[in-house]
Structures
1.
Amino acid sequence: MMFDQHVHSNFSFDSNEDLENYINVSNKNDIVTTEHLDFSNPIINYEDSSIDYLKYIEEIDSLNKKYSNKFFSGIEIGYTPNSEKRIEDFLKDKNFNLKLLSIHQNGLYDYMCVNKKLISLEAFIQEYFEQMIQALESSIEFNVLAHFEYGIRIIDISVAGFDSLASKFLNKIIELIVKKEIAFEVNTKSMYKYKKENLYSYMIEKYLKKGGKLFTLGSDAHNIKDYAYKFDEARKFLLTRNVKEIILFKDKIKMEKI
Ligand SMILES: [Zn+2]
Ligand SMILES: [Zn+2]
């Protein structure tokens, strides 16, 4: 089993799983969780989704004593332009082995919850990806671009339709992640639960063409039963595209054969 680099425990507002329980499903591999940071989060009535950092690190340290250093720390940073300064302030005195960039919301609504009848698909896609570009152009340091298509997980769109509305933004996003050496997350929840394998195939082809080489695998598990969800299928999917390695974010950053 490969290293799952998108995982939540009860340090995230939307998970009830004890961090320690992941040891039972990781098959003796290392574990990293990526807990939510989303300031003014619309889905919890604009409260902040944040991490009790000291408690989190304390828990990781104590688990590392018990399980010989198998646990690593991570954060899923939900970027909005309005929260950029708060994110920078939050991160400046903290260390995480893995920092994901996610676009979940815009300060008004979560992109998965918006009423698509009130906004055209064209305007929606433009807003979503322009926000992603803004995040990538900011001075916040991210390791990985997570679920690049979160906003369209529940929208039925063909690759051709997606290409015509999104490609100019996606080209810019790829240029930025290649330049900044930010890895591209293959999100198995998006690919197999939300059936977006075709969009991943499209995006990965573009990314490889522009010289992109850095991939991670993430299940976006919020409980142990979803840990490394369909990683075998994702592995085959990547090998078919001649992607043979993923990048691991632990104490050291390194490439590993899949
Ligand atoms: Zn997310
Ligand atoms: Zn997540």
2.
Amino acid sequence: MQRMTTQAEWAARAKAVLPAGGFGNFDPSMFIREGRGSRVWDEDGNEYVDYLIGSGPMLLGHGHPEVLEAVLEQLPKGQTFFANNALGVELAEDIVNAMPCGEQLRYVSSGGEADMYAMRLARAFTGRDKIVKFEGGYHGMSAEAQMSLAPVKQVNFPQAIPDSAGIPQSVADEMLIAPFNDPDYIRSLLAEYEGQVAGIIVEPLQRIIPPEPGFLQLLREEADKYGIVLIFDEVVTGFRFAYGGAQELYGVTPDLCTLGKVIGGGFPLAAIVGRADIMAHFDKAVVGADGWLMQLGTLSGNPVAAIAGIKSLEILRREGQYEKLRGFGHQVQDMIRKALDPVGIGYRIVGDPTLFEIVFTDAKPRTYRDVLAGDAGAGKAWNDTLRAHGIFKSPGKTYPSLALTDADMEMTSHAISQAANAVAQLG
Ligand SMILES: Cc1ncc(COP(=O)(O)O)c(C=O)c1O
């Protein structure tokens, strides 16, 4: 039998051709060979229960047979055309029907692109330049989105500081940074900048931090008061928190939302969705050359991603899927409580049953700074031990999938007990 190339060998090869030895996304020492259902295998042959699920898209698990069948049916008919295709229209219909804010949709290939265009649309629609973003909010890699994404230095609000080199100061000057979950701050900020703010972009649940009751409603009211475009970044929460996303779950409808991850069923597809009068700025015939937002992309709406999305959404519409997903989340959260309560360390499970993480802290985190103040050492011991016992996840998030099984739950429970022991030993 041919000897397999080990992860260490792949890492050495990767280092030669990839800066930082990887794709920039995840621990570059790991190489995933295969994923099936709820499990993934690395190139050393280790098996894991997958709570990373491609950073969100694989909500149905890897290689869902119905999604695969649909994709395999499309592949011989063509991968991409650049031109309109019927599957892209069908998926757009499904999405606008699902999302409370949905009237029209424009496709792009990644969530970050969708966010970039949503902010640009807000500017085109209002004729104003400033964008309000929350500290710690993640909206992809555009220059605007890189402002105060993960700052280690804490500056006074609303000053924006870039988390990336190569961004001109002029971009920072147009961004206003606010703390999440702080109604008084938002009220005073918007009053001070009356007539200058084009859009507010927000993750309705910021990374893992839930909105406090009334916070999203307040953003809606304030946006209406000042004629500001309210953008929900639902790249993560769309079709995960509920079929109609966080806007359905929390009962607040934005003007625009951005979607990605689940809607492409594991293929590159994302979208800007929202009010037709705002989306009209993609249509030169309606808004004229001056109001027009030029937007095109080679792979936008490609039929392979579209059919994977159509099938994924069809499966998600079936009875009981979201109850099942929430049930898995509750089960894992109960395991964590059972294992960590006796340890006597301060911790909080932060998030939603469909997406959460543990922060080792005594106080409920409400903002980015609260999460940052958690005990990083305990978090590292927790995550390293989970990995060593067959749990594949990012250090910042736990994503349950619909493919989880009883056997996965047993393995998860064992790993969580071990992780709690490791945290206990830190003293
Ligand atoms: C809330 C949010 N917005 C935007 C993005 C960017 O999406 P993409 O990685 O597809 O560009 C992500 C990615 O994780 C995200 O979590």
3.
Amino acid sequence: MAVFTVLGAGMMGSALCVPLVDRGHEVRLVGTPLDRDIVEGLRCDHVHLTLKHALPEAIVPYHVEQLGEAMQGCDALALGVSSAGIDWACETIAPHVRPGLPLFMITKGLTWDGERLHVLPDVVKAKLPVGVRDDVHPAAVAGPCIAGELARRVPSCVILAGRHQPTLTELAELLRADYYHVWTSTDVVGVEACAALKNAYAMGVAFGTGMHVARGGEPGSVAMHNVESAVFAQALLEMGLIIEAMGGDGRRAAGLAGAGDLDVTNNGGRTGRFGRWLGTGLSREAAIEKMAGATLECLEIIAVMREASRGLIAAGKLAAGSLPLLDHMAEVVLDDRPVDIPFEAFFGGSR
Ligand SMILES: NC(=O)c1ccc[n+]([C@@H]2O[C@H](COP(=O)([O-])OP(=O)(O)OC[C@H]3O[C@@H](n4cnc5c(N)ncnc54)[C@H](O)[C@@H]3O)[C@@H](O)[C@H]2O)c1
């Protein structure tokens, strides 16, 4: 048995606690300043406010002021924040991280420094205090895993990616439960690029269902699956090109963290719901309003990728015009242009 501290009591940080307690670990779930109501709700009746589901009583909820207490005797630390909270999380954990502490995150995102795209495990490592940085090897979980399903113990397959295999092996062994299947990979660029990019591309895959609804269509076997599948294939192609431009293995796009997570995010995630609203013809603002405050990391990653793709093209790492789907998604959510999928430019161009 180990002691796990999870910082961030949102949907996924909290859902992750379920396999951990089922494995017999002691689990301390620490809310951010934004999670006060969630922590209070868990203390009151164990029902998670946004998951709308009761969590095991063995999970001990803490407010952020109690982080020091929650870190005492901690064997592994998980970051459960979304990408908007990663800087805050790094600053907050800094006084509590000791050399050798296994650290991993569920957070998905990429950052662009004007020359290179960086994956979050590297970003987090660079933000750790100098005295511990060399001895902490951040890892990240990727793969098709909807929080509400994991909280209900639905069988889920994920990849734990990082640069230090001994840390991955140790963490994976602690994380595995009979319904939570964990693989490890040191291809942190490929896995984490997929994890972040699918949040953007799932929005585009979902356009087709929204277009079908806008035409008055009913759900069924004749809908706009042709559209969805063509966009899905183009999304994988573009994810592979971006991974290659980052120096990774583009074949990763066809695996669990790429195709697997893209499918679940389109069908079961909030990004898919957002894309469907856009596909019906709603403006960006109207679609955001429909999402009622849900975290929309697709907006962040598309903004990062518009700038990054221009930089990568200028540096000769990507061919101009090779990401027509990404370009169109950026037009839709950053320039508020209507959905008008550029099929002719897909798959290398049909002319
Ligand atoms: N929901 C899922 O099914 C799912 C699945 C796999 C991975 N993820 C990833 O997990 C991460 C969290 O997603 P979620 O679904 O739990 O979202 P959520 O909105 O339920 O929770 C977000 C968490 O981040 C914190 N946070 C947000 N902005 C912050 C800020 N500015 N400063 C400090 N903390 C901040 C919140 O307090 C909360 O703890 C995301 O990166 C997401 O891509 C989610």
4.
Amino acid sequence: MLDVAICKGLVINTKRQTKRITNIGIKAGEIVCVTGDDLTASVVIDAQGLIVSPGFIDVHGHVDGYLYSGELSACQGITTSIGGNCGLSPLDFDDFFNCQERDGFYINQGELVGHSFSLRQAAGIANPYRRALPCEFEKMKYMARAALDAGACGISFGLDYSPGASYDEITALASICADFDRVMPIHTRLFTQNDLYSLFEVLSIAKRTGVKLLFSHFVYQYGSGIMGDALEIIEKAIHDGLDIKIDSGMYMDWLTFIGTATFDEQTINDNEIRFSDMIAASGPYKGQRLNLELYRLMRKNYPNDSVICCVPNDASQIYAALKPDYAMPSTDIGQYLPGEGHPQIAGSFPKYIKEMVQERHDLTLEAAIYKATLLPAQTFHLAKKGQIEVGMDADLTIFNLSTIKDTAVFPDQGFPDNKPEGIEYVLVNGVPVVVQGAFTGKKPGRVLRA
Ligand SMILES: [Zn+2]
């Protein structure tokens, strides 16, 4: 007897990028048959008229075991999230993985070890502008190795947040990452909004070490009108033999903590950002636009609150970043409580399908799904994910292509955590966490030790 049968859905084959109507049988968290025959099971899901996709894999998130972020991820069809991005992560990986397994979680989680905040601070570098001393260098290398040994899936960097990180410091950690054959996601170092040099810095490190690169939230880095140039640089580097992917989201306006180096007064001036273009996204001033006075007050008293930076809106940059065959959609979801944050936390993947497949025809449905499932699975060596085949993990997202829609908005306009429409069922390891659009609260997620 099967645990779950999904019947008569339009099933996407991500490997061949084809689709056909068929039935799927699930037992003990695995796909055990894909067949035209009728199936009986304890739970039967009628998927007639719906798309059946492998569960979406979000390669750039900050879920990091936070329940509400896990719920918002599941409700937009994400069954696996890679956390620990932008240089911010747990450090004791045995402890992190054990706690997640003990308490359970809604979705699967892979986890990176972060350099810019986590490794640097643990090595004793409290000041992000400071160069590392030789002994601190050694500490970081030791801790990075320990994390990778314990199953971290790579080393992440948020170079904007640690201006003091030298080329040699990044290179040393990149070599370790390459030794382990893991991924190095990088939020690049931007001195100005048109800083293409930041790409060359990282490419040169990859050339020396052979590390696999993943450029993070690409549209937030290069969406200021230089996307074409940035992609051209990436394509040339791929052509020259480097292993490079990028991830990118569906919004232009980005968000980070007000206390970071990214929001230094000098940096703000260099980038010609106006205070009125900044909106508090959490804390007591949530939803308010900043002025110099409020900016200084938040920097001083609320450094860990988030602020959204509104940039000139040119949506063509969003779509351009996600079209190449080495690009994957991502959320950049943070660790938010209800009502706070940025619409990326709830709307990203439905918005991607709705706009790029349904409205604009930038991508075929099959290609869009491939980029959200099999491509990230291959990038992070998740051999049992990203495909609907016998023997694969039963992570599945079932949605209505004609009604799929994001409803989350920026915090000055309403609720950034409004859940999307059209995501009807989400199964994680064979267990439904979303049923007829409603979140079930079940916790079948596993930790994915690399
Ligand atoms: Zn980042």
